[in-house]
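Entry for the shared binder. Reason: the reviewer on the internal report wants the predicted structure included alongside the sequence.
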Amino acid sequence: MAPIDQPLVDGHGRVATDLRVSLTDRCNLRCQYCMPAEGLDWMPTEETLTDDELMRLIGIGVERLGIQDVRFTGGEPLLRRGLPNIIAATKALRPTPRTAITSNGLGLKRTAQALADAGLDRVNISLDTTDPETFVRITRRDRLPDVIDGLAAAADAGLAPVKVNAVLLRGINDEEASDLLRWCMKHEYELRFIEQMPLDAQHGWQRDEMVTADETLTRLAEDFRLTPLDGRGSAPAEKFQVDDGPHTVGIIGSVTRPFCGDCNRVRLTADGQIRNCLFAREESDLRAPLRDGASDADLADRWRVAMAGKLPGHGINDPSFLQPTRPMSSIGG
């Protein structure tokens, strides 16, 4: 049995210290690049990890495997009942991990302060447009004011820096890059553009329809002076200073500018599966042994084995690439 202080090292020498935890596959938006208008068949409740099971696995990750950052995702993580308690329990672990959520922001107006009081450090909010009609077209819901209120509530609660994640869609909002950056700078939010990835439930992603990182930078350069910043490390975003600062903008080019060589992430799905890559087609089950009475040491060892088999890259640019069976809403961002 491996010693309890052995970290999550893969076969290429990368060490996973960032855990993405999906709390649910449910969502209250229907973004066209994620799921169909009618939604999906949600995960049965009995397959979802309970709060106690979830915290046991997070605790193993932090206390035995060297996890330093825990990000809660979904679906929509704010739909998980008891989220403040989960965050508080995570912050009570030793050593104390940094915590964050990736959310659509719809419920933040009423929950941001409670999450901050529980120990949440910061938030990433998905917002692809500030135009009400375009928002409805992308999300199929008329909820833009709720997202804007949620962003303001997060800032008021001290969940800084408040980050905004935006996906540009060709022919829909790809002309809004500069407008969105101006809006975020005005409100002191940190904007990051993310290339659309092949993770939609419909499997309708087409490379030639994707707005690339280079295209986004070209569009922004028409209105701003962008200066590359050093010190990216294992972060997915390339950061650029806007004009003379202090504002920055990030570009996450997962498809055309992959950063797999510096990846430090591992994922736990809401039903207890370990995924060592967002685009992996294989998973390692921790829920079954957990429910069968496995010890913490055994679960930690299974997790290490799962991590050891991580591939050198996501393979999107390989002709043999196949999209994961799970959609993004089930994997977690």
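Summary line for the report: The CA atoms of residues 237 and 305 lie 28 Å apart.
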